[in-house]
Amino acid sequence: MTFVSTTFFFIATVLTFSICFVFVFHSIQDIAILFNLIIILLMLFNTYVFQVGLVAILLERFRTLFILSALYLTFSVTLHSWLLNLRWMNTNKFVWTNKLQVLFVVQRTASVFYYYFYKRTAEFLGDPRLYEDSPWLREVFAQVRQ
After folding, report:
1. Which of 6, 69, 88, 141 has the greatest count of CB atoms below 10 A from its CB?
2. pTM of the entire predicted model
3. InterPro entries per the record (predicted)?
């Protein structure tokens, strides 16, 4: 039991006082957000709707996700940069300002909406109608051509 508590204390100390680990973890989180967006775009490219050329329908349908992804990535990068900047100047003190707290709350609130719309989009992209020719797609295509 002593080994586990000592190991936990060591990990907590390293994670608390090492700016390099914090930078790596924040970078991984920001890169993961970009990878999520790339995965959604790849899934959109594989749909029959995209291959037929009705990209506007897909962009209209998933506009909220793209906007929230951009906002969430912006808030995350801004928060992480600010935290690292404050931490770099004072490595031995816990620095937390009121504006940083507001940004933290905004970023976390945006994350709730981002993950909701990401999951909803992933579920919608599982619809088989998007991957085959269907009557509703022919109607939309006829409307676009007119």
Report:
1. 69
2. 0.79
3. TM_138
